[in-house]
């Protein structure tokens, strides 16, 4: 990891800015190529992520890996994967506004340092945060946006595809094809 990203990870590793630090096992800063052209942003660590200190290593992550490979043709190590909040919300509850606000500078600095060409936001939390909107993911997805010089493509969180079956899955696949085309542009 380049020095600045390492320094940021070290800072996040000791973070006590919100109450989530009290119940975490590990800070889940993010993983992948520091110069990745493609970045994925989820919501927050679940139980397995909290245990391992790595993002998307549970059921949602397995589906995400499969979709990235099948639709974009790359493995996760070629991408960078991060979350809106870096510590697990207890019992996987939604992150609260003050937790999101406390953690936001880490995500913004990650994006600035990695400078991805394409950002795929997974689900409501990351999509609404980066697009600065209250509009939900069902309405947001299906097109691309601009975010700080990058192409931002919102899609469903993989857990929605795990819960919701064929339709969200098909839509995620088409959003990832959009990301592949944006990477090639
Ligand atoms: N869900 C997320 O949003 N992020 C993870 O890292 C794992 C599951």
Task: Give a brief description.
This protein is of the alpha/beta class. The protein has one domain: 3-Layer(aba) Sandwich (Uracil-DNA Glycosylase, subunit E), CATH 3.40.470.10. It is 47% helix and 14% strand.
Overall description:
It is built from eight helices and six strands. With 185 residues, it is α/β, with parallel strands linked by helices. The protein has one domain (3-184): Uracil-DNA Glycosylase, subunit E. It has a six-stranded mixed sheet with strand order 1-3-2-4-6-5, sandwiched between helices. α1 (3-13) packs antiparallel against α4 (97-114) and α3 (59-72) crosses α8 (166-184). Bound molecules: uracil. Uracil (URA) is lined by residues 42-46, 49, 55-56, 58, 60-61, 83.
Q: The CATH topology, please?
A: Uracil-DNA Glycosylase, subunit E
Number of helices: 8
Beta-strand share of residues: 5-15%
| Major sheet details | 6 strands, mixed
Helical content stands at 40-55%
Q: Hetero groups bound?
A: uracil
CATH architecture heading: 3-Layer(aba) Sandwich
Number of strands: 6
Low-confidence stretches: none
Mean pLDDT: 97
Distance between the termini: 27 Å
